[in-house]
Every structure is written in structure tokens, then in C-alpha cells.
Amino acid sequence: MATHWEEFYSSHLPPIDFEDNRKLLQEFCERHNENNEKIVLITSGGTTVPLEHNTVRFVDNFSAGTRGAASAEYFLEHGYVTIFMHRLKSLEPFTRHFNGQKFMDMLDLNERGPNTTITVRPDGVDVLAPILSRYKAAQDNGRILYVNFTTVSDYFWLLRAVCECLAQFGARALLYLAAAVSDFYVPANQIPTHKMQSGGGPPNIQLQLVPKLLAPLVSLWVPLAFVVSFKLETDESILISKSRDALNKYKHKLVVGNMLQTRRTKVVFVTPDNNYELILSREQVHNGMEIEEIIVSNVVANHLDYIKIQKY
Ligand code: PMT
Questions:
Q1: What CA–CA distance (Å, rounded) separates 19 from 240?
Q2: C-alpha closest to that of 186 among 64, 33, 31, 11
């Protein structure tokens, strides 16, 4: 009998750019595996649930992709090659620093007809240069691959394809599942082809449970990898118990618990042996430090210990 997650794949078609992405992933992973690199998959941003095939309306997930985009920069600094699997148009590493008008405000325009030039203001150079230098290093050396999803079904197809490529890395693969994945959806065979019309009265939309991919991911697809999932709650009293439930159920290595309201300054690491908090002090926040810097260095330390154990 097909499991819940197998049924999901058999009833949802892959996204149109799926084969292109699969080739890119295979090439990227083979090249870096030959060099014995450590690799991280970061999932980032929220998935959508379409309510029509020709989608005008959809259910969305709140995530901006801040956690994933910031973490990608720190993993690159720690020497990991990085697959950044993100929601289209959510935040991306490096460019995230220049959202809105920030980038335009760093530039001066010298209009001289065909000899018009654009220069970066001196204070802009101080901001841009270190970020541009890290961006170029990652890009020019082919150390980061960007792939994107929009719907929960895109996410499913892409995540499995990434795992198929990561399996060859064994314990050197780290999965850092920070995306906010829809827990509820409307199956493809139950949504209309065209835009719903209000003349038909209020629609009766029946949401169903999305299968948790962590189950096949941990037990079948990448059984040797170091898998980190995230748990978001809004009620602090259940955060640790829900995180531990997830760890017990899926048998992966680490759950990073966070509260919606305090996720920028505090997280809790729940491991098979214990739990401990990572908190940014007021001073660290004031100095512009990001919590992802300490999350990533702690995850990396745990992953390196795990690799050592696997070797013996
Ligand atoms: O992007 P930001 O605004 O910075 O916010 C970051 C964040 C709060 C989104 C992030 O830190 C976070 O907590 N992400 C997980 C949020 C979540 O909703 O998790 P969940 O309870 O739906 O799922 C738990 C884990 O199971 C996740 O790692 C998820 O990848 C995985 N999952 C979820 C659904 C599903 N069908 N299959 C899965 O494997």
C-alpha cells in the first residue's frame, strides 16, 4: 500500500523546471563530492497552497526567508558548499542586505549624456565591499547553488531530488530545514481550473493534512546525513515538548525550536541528550550581530562531532 507521502507524489505533477533543476543539482553535487567537501542544504521561506490551478488565490506561509538567507552566508564562511532552496522572491544571501531603497541610496548618478557614470558613495563602499567580496568568492568558485519553489508541491519534488543527490555525501551532508512548509493543503484534484467566482456563493474549502517529509527523508533518502529541523510555535509552554516529540518521531539529530515573537534573538537546541538555549544579548543585538551566526556555528560543531563518530 502506498504511504501518505507516496500518494502525494503520485497525485501532484513535478514543476515545469524540475528536470533542469535536477541536472543542475546532479552536476553541482558530483563536482563537490569528488573534492570531498562538506555540503549543506538550506530550505528557506514559506510554501504556498494554490486554491485554483490557474492560480489567482493561494494560502501562504508567513516566512520572509531571513533565517535561511542569513544562515547560508555563515555556512559558506564555515567552508560548506551550499544548496540554497528557497521560496521564489524570498530573501537571498548577500542581496538581503540591500532590500528596498538601501541599494539605490548608496549610489551617485553623474548625468553627462553618453558619458553618464554611476558611482558608489564612500559610505556605501564600506557597506558593500565586504559583502560583495564574500558574494564573489561564493559565486566565482561555484560554491552556492540556488533553486527555488513556490507551492508545497514544488517543495516536495525539489526536496526529494536534492536528497537523491546528497546521499552520496554520507555523513558530510547537513540538512538545515528552516523553510515554513504548509501543514494543510487542498489536493490538486479538488481545486478548480479557473479563478473562483464570487457569484457561486462562499466557497467551501476543505484543507487536508500535508504528509511530513521528514519521515522518508531521514529513514530512506539520506539516512547518513546530519538532519536539523526547525520547530516554530507561538505558545512557549509547548515549544520544547513539541520539538522533542519531533526528534523522537523522526529520529534525526537536532531540532531548533523558536517562538514566532522572539525568533530573532532566542532559540532552543533540542538534541537526543539535552536541550540548551542560544540567546543574543542586548549588546550583541546593538552591535548588529545576528542569531544565525551562533546557530550556525553550534550546528557546525555538532555536525563535525557527528562526522568524527561516523569515521570510527
Ligand atoms: O524566515 P524567517 O521569517 O526568518 O522565519 C524563520 C522560521 C521561523 C520560519 C524558521 O526558524 C522555522 O521555524 N522554520 C520551521 C517552521 C515550521 O513551520 O515548521 P513545521 O512545524 O511546519 O515543520 C517542522 C519541520 O518539519 C520543519 O523543519 C519542516 O521543514 C519539516 N516539514 C514540515 C512540513 C512537511 N510537510 N514536511 C516536513 O518535513
A1: 39
A2: 11
Is any ligand 1 atom within 6 A of the Cβ of residue 266? no
Ligand 1: distance of its center to the CA of 125 in Å? 36
Q: What is the dihedral of CA 125, 126, 130, 136, to 10 degrees?
A: 0
Residue 259: all three cell numbers together: 517562538
Which residue ranges form the domains of the chain, and what is each CATH number?
4-311 (3.40.50.10300)
Question: Does the pTM exceed 0.90?
Answer: yes
The string of pLDDT tens digits covering residues 213-246 is 999 999 999 999 999 999 999 999 999 999 999 9
For ligand 1, say whether the CB of 181 is within 6 Å of any of its atoms: yes
Interval 146-183: pLDDT, tens? 999 999 999 999 999 999 999 999 999 999 999 999 99
ipTM of the complex: 0.95
Cell of 32: 563537490
Identify the CA nearest to 214 among candidates 260, 238, 181, 263.
181
How far is residue 181's CA from residue 48's CA, in Å, rounded to a whole number?
8
Contact residues for 221 (Cβ-Cβ < 8 A; gap 6+):
160, 163, 164, 167
Q: Are 40 and 174 a contacting pair, CB within 8 Å?
A: yes
Q: Is 57 exposed, middle or buried (0-12, 13-18, 19+ CB in 10 A)?
A: middle
Nearest CA to ligand 1 atom 6: 67
